[in-house]
Design a protein that fits this description.
By secondary structure, the protein is α+β, with helices and mostly antiparallel strands. It contains nine helices and 34 strands.
């Protein structure tokens, strides 16, 4: 006879004090604690919480089931008016037996699986048979694959029972639960994958924090060394600079600490607890409960894996700058722009209509679709590659030392080359429209409008389609630029829209700028929209509201981009550079 038993003493250990006791209480999650420990915990926290899985319950301790098995009688003895304490429970027979009847049962049914009576008490809700709600004397043994309704054999006579079909598609309840557990396991794996990504990001945050602390110490040493070279009369000035500098540094450091605590650690803890809660809900529940709650659990797990990862703040860190003959020290901080001033104009050897900067080099597309490079420092140009196609180039972007070109044609096509013009790969962009179009790199994805489908297409860097985001704006694409790691700004006709390419949502649409042309992002917080008549409007990247307008600063723009603290524009043979202050 299969024993399948668990030693009673092992079950009678409190999860708080780890002592053996006879006054154990079982929580709905099936974890057990002695009543005394639960009362002390409830008095302290005012919340009844499981010490193992952290699940909370709105019930009193007196209402919890006890694990006292002393009064559970043998079912066979009861039939004969004899009262003997039961010691085991048979899963197949759904009956409890004393020592004597256990032996007889084992002789007749040697293959039946029995468990210790303590385990039966603990798992009673999950082990006892469930009866049909309609045919109350019949045990449920079937389930519908279509609607997940739990059924008995008599329910199959109901011709209109399934809300998702004319008849129930009945299978064994155990078989359906087995398949649902497999699917739940897959969903759990995805959630654990996101848990791992958050853990990795948290480790990266710690490394970044250590680097900031190290650099802060080095900068502080530089400050002290420079201060010691000056006469004693200006020491007070250096102390003032040190105080201001350390305040900025601590503020930035606090941003990283807050990011770790609020954006990463809390989400990681919340995700871990939710996974454990859902796991316990499935593992320790009756098969009927698993079927009834599966769609709800499936929705909860999918929601846990959809949200993108937060972005680690790494920009605008204050630094010390030593300058001049007298070794004076200044604090260098990149503040929001206050003005845009024309710096210089460069006459180019041929007409260009697109540019994209990478590593102090501006890559330009001529109107004959050739690729040129311009050194931003010495303003020298050279041709890199003749056109890949006879079709005109509508858009250009770049990342990871690769250039991406959007060629107009039937179909549209995206060409990828290295910085020397060598073709690496290409793919078709199936857009039936002939409207002007552009593309941009956002994080590790390529984003381009599909005007024919009225969508925004999101590709991997290798050309695999990730998703099509609905975007019902009509007209030519005037400008496109990345905003942070997962958002893109697109200007079309008289509006500018911000789209979250991870969630597929249009975050906001602004009509604050009349006839917008190019659009560029400045330090992830400000969006610069270049208007038709030379005005530059600053939009808040979070809200889309116009916070400031610079009138008449920038004129004649076919394409624009940010290169450090400079705004670079091109129109025909004219390339202009503006300083952003």
């Amino acid at each position: 006879m299969a024993s399948g038993s668990i030693v009673s003493a092992e079950l009678k250990i409190c999860g708080y004090c780890f002592e053996h006791t006879v006054n154990l209480k079982s929580l709905p999650c099936t974890h057990v604690f002695c009543a005394t420990c639960l009362e002390k915990y409830l008095e302290k926290t005012k919340v009844l919480k499981c010490g193992n899985c952290r699940a909370t319950y709105d019930t009193s301790i007196s209402e919890l089931p006890s694990l006292d098995t002393a009064n559970i009688a043998c079912d066979s003895c009861t039939q004969k008016d004899i009262t003997e304490k039961s010691t085991v429970y048979c899963r197949q027979c759904s009956r409890r037996f004393c020592v004597k009847h256990q032996e007889g049962h084992g002789d007749i049914f040697p293959d039946h699986h029995v468990i210790h009576i303590d385990e039966y008490v603990r798992e009673k809700n999950r082990l006892e048979p469930r009866y049909c709600k309609t045919h109350t004397s019949v045990v449920v043994s079937l389930a519908c694959e279509m609607c997940h309704s739990v059924l008995c054999a008599q329910c199959m006579d109901d011709k209109d029972g399934c809300p998702k079909g004319s008849r129930h598609q009945a299978v064994s309840l155990t078989a359906l639960v087995k398949r649902l557990r497999v699917k739940f396991s897959e969903l759990k794996t995805e959630a654990q994958k996101k848990e791992g990504e958050l853990s990795t990001l948290l480790k990266k945050s710690h490394v970044t924090l250590a680097e900031i602390d190290k650099e802060t110490g080095e900068q502080k040493e530089l400050l002290h060394k420079t201060r010691d070279e000056q006469i004693e009369a200006i020491k007070a000035k250096y102390d003032e600079i040190e105080t201001e500098f350390m305040t900025h540094r601590q503020n930035f450091r606090q941003e990283v600490v807050d990011f770790m605590d609020e954006e990463v650690a809390k989400r990681l803890d919340s995700l871990s607890v939710e996974i454990q809660r859902l796991d316990v809900s499935v593992k320790d529940s009756h098969e009927v409960d698993v079927v009834n709650r599966f769609e709800e659990l499936e929705t909860e797990l999918k929601q846990l894996t959809l949200e993108g990862l937060p972005k680690l703040p790494t920009k605008n860190l204050p630094k010390l700058k030593v300058k001049g003959e007298y070794r004076t020290v200044e604090i260098e901080i990149n503040y929001d722009l206050s003005s845009i001033h024309f710096a210089k104009e460069v006459q180019l050897p041929t007409a260009f209509n697109r540019l994209h900067p990478m590593n102090d080099i501006a890559y330009l597309i001529s109107r004959s679709s050739d690729i040129h490079s311009l050194d931003i420092n010495n303003l020298t140009t050279k041709i890199i590659k003749k056109s890949f196609s006879a079709d005109a180039v509508n858009g250009m972007t770049g990342c990871n030392n690769e250039i991406y070109l959007l060629h107009y044609g039937n179909p549209w096509r995206i060409f990828v080359s290295d910085l020397n013009g060598k073709l690496l790969r290409q793919w078709d962009h199936h857009d039936s429209s002939k409207k002007n179009n552009l593309l941009s790199v956002v994080g590790d994805r390529i984003v381009v409008r599909n005007c024919g489908k009225r969508t925004v297409s999101v590709y991997t860097l290798l050309g695999e389609v990730i998703r099509e985001i609905p975007f019902n704006s009509d007209g030519d694409t005037k400008g496109i630029c990345p905003v942070k790691a997962d958002r893109v700004a697109i200007s079309v006709n008289s509006t500018v829209s911000l789209i979250n390419i991870s969630s597929g949502q249009v975050v906001w649409t602004s009509a604050a700028v009349k006839e917008p042309r190019s659009v560029v992002c400045y330090r992830d917080s400000r969006m610069l929209v270049l208007g038709k008549y030379g005005e530059v409007s600053e939009l808040d990247c979070n809200t889309g509201k116009c916070v400031k307008t610079h009138l008449g600063n920038v004129e004649d723009v076919d394409s624009a981009s940010i290169c450090g603290d400079k705004l670079v524009t091109v129109c025909g043979k004219s390339l202009k550079i503006y300083n952003i202050l």
